[in-house]
Amino acid sequence: MKKIIETKKLSKHYGNVVAINNINLDVSFGELFGLLGPNGSGKTTIIKILTGQVKPTTGTGKILGMNILENPIEIRKNVGIIPEQETPPSFLTAEEYLYFVAKIRKIDNVDKKIDFWFDFLNFKDRKKFLCKDLSRGTRQKLMVAQAFLHEPKLAFIDEPLINLDPIIQRKVKDYFIKYVKEGNTIFFSSHVLEIAQEICTRVSIIEKGNLIYDGKINDMKKNKINLEKLFLKRVQQ
Fold first, then answer.
1. Domain count, the chain
2. Nearest CA to 85 among 55, 50, 47, 121?
3. Is 224 left (phi over 0), alpha (psi -120 to 50) or beta?
4. How many of the other CB atoms lie within 10 Å of CB of 177?
5. Are 32 and 177 in contact (CB under 8 A)?
6. pLDDT tens-digit map of 103-134
7. Is pTM beyond 0.70 here?
8. Which of 47, 50, 53, 56 is nearest to 11 (CA)?
9. CA distance 165 to 187
10. CA-based nearest residue to 36, from 165, 162, 211
């Protein structure tokens, strides 16, 4: 299958601290790929490098065929990103923020798309609220909306379901599954194993900056491999 993400010997050092170490990773078009690992294992660092927010110490990679070192701005134009922490600008209302995102991304038919997200995530009663006055859960809804507003072929989502109530979590998970079935790709980073096993098509496990496992969820199910047991066994070695 054609690759939408490819990395070669990707490493990031912060002084003497090795955040990630010689990461060779590829993701194909149409995968709901899960990068799993404990807190501090390097998941967020990988996303920041792949989306051009941080430069690797060594190694390189391609996103949508574009070199991550040469085209960081172009990459960010073409992907969706849900960061680890929700950070919509405090001085804008929720509605203003989505219109701002739409203007930056030059999105057509924007009114209909923005209305869809307020309705779908059930927070249209908060559209006139300043972002600083929104609850953490509502800010997370807003970050989900902005990431998919331009319907990107590839989205990077870092712990996207934190702070969401169970009803909205279910809706968002179903949306992710449907989105990938329509031919798009999602790079999902999390330490919540149950969610990964439920929605991902393939997972890799990272520990202390090193990739230690890669496998397809369907193969794991056929072989009756429990992701939680596998994860604990690999990480605790």
1. 1
2. 47
3. left
4. 16
5. yes
6. 999 998 899 999 999 999 999 999 999 999 99
7. yes
8. 56
9. 22
10. 211
pLDDT digits (tens, 9 = 90+) for 184-193: 999 999 988 9
Structure tokens at 172: 């968002």
Tokens of 138: 């509502």
The contacts of residue 168 (CB under 8 Å, 6+ apart) are 121, 122, 137, 141
Determine the Cα–Cα distance for residues 110 and 103; give it in Å rounded to an integer: 9
How buried is residue 63: exposed, middle or buried, by Cβ count under 10 Å (0-12/13-18/19+)?
A: buried
CATH code for the domain of 78 = 3.40.50.300
| Banded pLDDT at 237 (limits 50, 70, 90) | low
Is pLDDT above 90 for 5? yes
Kindly tell me the sign of the dihedral angle through the C-alpha atoms of 68, 25, 174, 48: negative
Structural domain including 195 reads: 3-235
In whole angstroms, give the CA distance from residue 183 to residue 237.
37
Is the predicted pLDDT of residue 173 greater than 60, yes or no?
Answer: yes
Asked if residue 48 has pLDDT above 80, the reply is: yes
- 38 token code pair: 């404990």
List, in sequence order, the alpha helices (H) in the chain.
43-50, 72-78, 94-105, 110-120, 136-148, 166-181, 193-199, 217-222, 227-235
Torsion, Cα 213 21 155 181, to 10 degrees, reads -20
